[in-house]
Specification:
The complex is a heterodimer of chains A (278) and B (287). By secondary structure, chain A is mainly alpha-helical. Chain A is built from 13 helices and no strands. Chain B is 73% helix and 0% strand. Classes of the chains: A mainly alpha (278), B mainly alpha (287).
């Protein structure tokens, strides 16, 4: 169809959406991050680098996000292998539904479930005590390990789905041949499965990393008072301190970090942003 | 190693065990939440004191079940209204965007497409604060220039709707675009040759073809909106949505009412997800 009368009907709402709700607000975020009380200033960024609590939280959030992404990958690989290569083909649809179901439920409900399982008066502690394994209840919430487990849990699906779709296209005969020629399991993983799955690993890792970096609920509810997640710093600047310019600077820094990592991941593997979504 | 190769029994068993544990990991928190909604106790914890439906139907004064809990019911209603508005808006604009990017060529298309994908990589928290700042700037401008104090530019119901709309539309656009790409354009040409106008072609030929993807995208955007927390957190006004309201309750200590609400949410989303899944499965296309 040539550029018809419909063109303007299509482009008007799209332009309104992208300019008014995406472009301008983020431009505003950038501009406000350079504003002080009355004038333009770099103070908001200077504060970030001079106050150790700010940049340490930033680094900590980035590092923990990377660790979480790696753990998610390690856990998701065998799951994807099982669904695509080991389970009976008839079971596949059922397993996929089972894998996806929990992720349709609100993140808050899932985190709440972990809280009543793990806390001091929680279900797990009840069982441990009635089995006589501990005398006193153990507080399993509010530490970094639990927080990371929660983050792995909430973002698992976004790693599993791309891995399942790339492993599907891996030809079984390659693995069979390697096995016939005497390759060990580690060797097969290293030289056949991982290289073949690279596109799925990259897109899954990027999505998981971004979701973990921008997560607020899980660190806040499972990491407790000391979770020190960067999104919490942003929230505090906005809602508690009402220092919007400082918050804007933090927000922009987080946006730069996530964009940089995504760009790097895409560059390293020669993928395009559009492919992430499919 | 894989099913076509001979494997040791130990390997098979340990892999199956791993998968059982993995599914336990996935479902344990949901299962515990659901079971404890029926425990006859004032706290969502064991030991088991017997079965009760108090946390659903009790009207107080000691225990207030969800169906008598005005605040939570209001939050559920707000979430419903938000999700309905968001999914209608998203589907309309998403269809326009799909047509625009799949069927039209224009200057700056690449740039606009990139901007359309941007919400995929912008953390929800950042989207929330940007919109809060942007709306506030416009609000201040209107107040200074025209002396108007407009509700819509302050954290409110409509700001939440626009905030969720701004990123969910990207997903809707991608789902509908994927379907539109498989469309045979000669059908449109045939309709045009037979004298239909471009608008009639879309209404009678292309949109019926897109129907299944529009329904699926609408269902997904309803769910995404209903459950959104990160973006909503910064835009919410006097009428909190359900996830925000639950968060405030969970943070300040919990009662089994939260389990009851969670149970309803879990059952509701499972049903919607299953219907959506099998609807698409029968059509032989995954969304």
């Amino acid at each position: 169809m040539k550029r018809s009368g419909m063109f303007w009907i299509f482009i008007t709402p799209v332009l309104l959406w992208l300019v008014l709700l995406i472009f301008l607000p983020h431009l505003d975020l950038l501009l406000l991050s350079f504003r002080g009380d009355a004038s333009w200033t770099l103070d908001n960024y200077r504060n970030f680098f001079t106050e150790p609590i700010y940049w340490l939280t930033f680094v900590r959030t980035a590092l923990y996000s990377i660790i979480t992404t790696l753990l998610t990958l390690i856990l998701a690989l065998p799951v994807a292998l099982y669904v695509t290569k080991i389970a009976k083909p008839g079971l596949r649809g059922f397993l996929m539904v089972l894998l996806m179901l929990p992720f349709w439920v609100s993140e808050l409900v899932r985190i709440y479930g972990w809280m009543i399982l793990l806390r001091e008066s929680g279900v797990l502690n009840y069982f441990l005590q009635s089995l006589g394994l501990t005398n006193q209840p153990v507080e399993m919430l509010y530490n970094d390990a639990t927080m990371i487990m929660g983050l792995v849990y909430t973002s698992m699906l976004f790693m599993v789905i791309p891995l399942v779709s790339v492993m599907d296209s891996l030809d079984n005969s390659l693995i069979e041949a390697a096995c016939d020629l005497g390759a060990s399991k580690i060797c097969i993983w290293r030289t056949i499965i991982i290289p073949h799955c690279k596109p799925g690993i990259v897109s899954g890792s990027i999505v998981v990393f971004m979701l973990v970096l921008g997560n607020y609920l899980t660190p806040n509810l499972m990491g407790g008072k000391n979770s020190l997640w960067f999104t919490e710093q942003i929230y505090n600047q906005f809602i508690a301190s009402f220092n919007w310019n400082q918050g804007a600077a933090f927000g922009f820094l987080l946006l730069v970090l996530s964009s940089a990592i995504i760009w790097l991941g895409l560059k390293l593997t020669g993928q395009r942003l559009g492919e992430l979504s499919s | 190693m894989i099913r076509s190769l001979p494997r040791s029994r130990a390997y098979d068993r340990s892999f199956t065990l791993f998968m059982v544990l993995y599914f336990l990991f996935l479902f344990a928190p949901l299962l515990v939440t659901c079971v404890l909604a029926f425990n006859n106790s004032d706290f969502p914890s064991l030991p088991w004191h017997g079965f009760t439906l108090d946390w659903f139907f009790s009207e107080g004064p000691k225990r207030v079940g969800i169906f008598a809990d005005g605040e939570n019911l209001r939050a559920i209603r707000t979430s419903f209204q938000t999700a309905v508005c968001v999914s209608i808006l998203c589907v309309i604009v998403g269809v326009c965007a799909a047509f625009l990017f799949e069927q039209e060529n224009f200057w700056g298309k690449e740039l606009l497409y990139f901007l359309m994908l941007a919400p995929l990589v912008i953390p929800g928290v950042i989207l929330g604060i940007s919109l809060l700042l942007g709306a506030n700037s416009i609000g201040v401008f209107f107040e200074d220039e025209f002396g108007l104090d407009l509700e819509i530019f302050r954290p409110s119901f409509w700001l939440v709707v626009f905030g969720q709309f701004s990123f969910i539309t990207t997903f809707v656009t991608l789902v509908i675009s994927a379907r539109l790409r498989k469309f045979d354009r000669s059908l449109e040409e045939a309709a045009l040759n037979l004298g239909a106008g471009p608008f009639e072609v879309i209404v009678h030929v292309t949109l019926p073809y897109l129907r299944s993807s529009i329904i699926a995208a609408g269902a997904v955007s309803f769910l995404m909106s209903f459950e959104n927390f990160n973006t909503t957190l910064f835009l919410v006004g006097a009428r909190p949505t359900l996830p925000i309201n639950l968060y405030l309750q969970v943070r300040d200590g919990s009662t089994p009412v939260i389990n009851a609400i969670s149970l309803l949410l879990i059952v509701g989303t499972f049903l919607l997800a299953l219907v959506n899944f099998f609807y698409n499965h029968n059509k032989n296309q995954m969304v």
